[in-house]
Amino acid sequence: MISRFKKKIRSIFGSGKSDSPSPENSVRYAEKKEPEPPSGAHSRKSSTHNERNVRKPARNVRHSFGDKKSSTPHKISKAPEMPALKEVEPEEGKCRFSELDVNKEILCALQDLDFKYCTPIQQKCLPDALNGKDITGKAQTGTGKTAAFLIAAFTKLLRNPKNALKRGSCRILVLAPTRELAMQIHKDAEGISKYCGFNNLAVFGGMDHRKQRDRLDYPIDALVGTPGRILDFCNSRHLNLADTEVLIIDEADRMLDMGFIPDVRRIVNKLPKTGVRQTMFFSATLTDEITRLVDKWLEDPVTVETESDQVVTDLIDQKFYSVSRSEKFAMLLWILNNSDIERMLIFGNRKDYNTDLYNKLRRNNIECELLSGDIPQKKRMNILEDFRSGRIKVVVATDVAARGIHVEGISHVVNYDLPERPDDYIHRIGRTGRAGATGKAISFVCEYGAYMLEELEKTLEEKINCIYPDEEMVKLPPLPRNGQRNRSRNY
């Protein structure tokens, strides 16, 4: 009985005397496939490395960053075939991207994106950034600074190719204060590096930690992330920043406001020293505290400022309507029904009031969405994508929930409630009038918000003239047949 059992075992598993698989098992070995790299990962075959050497490591293995075995051939994925470059007609006072020292791969991608001429920040920033100098940029959102630092960083990578990099490493690190901004920068990076074959990744909280971690099993060209998640991966040793060549810190003033600077400081300490890496640092304001960070993290930086002393760009048409609290909702409906709206962002100060406002808009057949801090991240991303694509034209949000919303084509920003801080007003209305487009900022000044006007006038350095609306503008229209007007709160 025992001998028959041993023979049965040998017939299945082999005798164990040879390292070669048995004939029965050779089929199983042949059917095993190497794990597929993530979408966009490097896959061009190298003459000096065997394909088996890039096998993805087991998930439970902690990499030793000093171990040569943790090094992976830096393979470049097959990029789309580049189109022919079209000649861009010169225009007086404008700089064409083709006039700058930019690689053809990037120029073709910019052509696909219909980027022909540099914005002021790009024209001032790119020549020095392309030469590898550290940059301090004072620029508001919507000025084209993202394209500026990505073009410079990707050009550096193309001109200094690396054959092999460590797993869990990145050549470019971009730090952003919010998940939404990180996603937007990653999306821009994918577009600008379309013909480069780079592997780019965005990591941030609120999404699957394990999936993001597994993507770090491959070398990353451009890694975009929020400080907390980047530091998390550094501490767990899934991310090694020792060989990072370019550091980009975006919206540093928001990082400061949100309390992220201590995390950013810890991350910077894990990078190559100042002067070894190239650093680009962007902020809407250059306060004393921001300037101290620049002095510590950058070496002999070139400072570029494109904004004038004017706080709000002339591209934004600001209007202030004097209405009572009970008239605000009727006024909002009048604006919605009598304006050519591409996308509208409505700001309120309280989450519970915003929920009621959202419900009342829906009852009045206004398709809209609500952004609040307790909405799951996946749903939040879907709402932003619907807003970005135009499927949803109206979004109601608080300042906290709307942090990092960078959506092009917002034609109207409505301050349903005036913010308590003048700086928040500037950030709110700055989401329209971007990248050369015009926009409208409409604010309701009621008996509860009028006290804000004096401080706001000081910030804007101009007198605010309130408009008294006509009677029909604050008259509530009949409720649609399928609606039930909620009078639980006056708006």
Written account of the structure:
By secondary structure, this protein is an alpha/beta fold. It folds into two domains: 97-305, P-loop containing nucleotide triphosphate hydrolases (Rossmann fold, 3-Layer(aba) Sandwich), CATH 3.40.50.300; 316-474, Rossmann fold (3-Layer(aba) Sandwich). Helix content is 34%, strand content 14%. It is built from 17 helices and 16 strands. The chain has a seven-stranded parallel sheet, sandwiched between helices. Strands 12-13-11-14-15-10-16 form a seven-stranded parallel sheet, with helices on both faces. Helix 8 (227-235) packs across helix 10 (261-269). The N and C termini lie far apart (87 Å). Mean pLDDT is 82; it is low at 12-71 and 485-491.
What's the total helix number? 17
Indicate the CATH topology of the largest domain. Answer: Rossmann fold
Strand order in the sheet with the most strands: 5-6-4-7-8-2-9
The biggest beta sheet reads: 7 strands, parallel
Query: Please, how many domains?
Result: 2
Classified by CATH, the class of the largest domain is Alpha Beta
Structural class: alpha/beta
Q: Runs with pLDDT <50, length 5+?
A: 12-71, 485-491
Termini distance?
Answer: 87 Å
Shape: globular
CATH architecture of the largest domain: 3-Layer(aba) Sandwich
The value of Rg in angstroms is: 27 Å
Query: Strand content of the residues, in percent?
Result: 5-15%
The number of distinct β-strands equals 16
Corresponding CATH superfamily of the largest domain: P-loop containing nucleotide triphosphate hydrolases
- Percent of residues in helices comes to 25-40%
Average pLDDT reading: 82
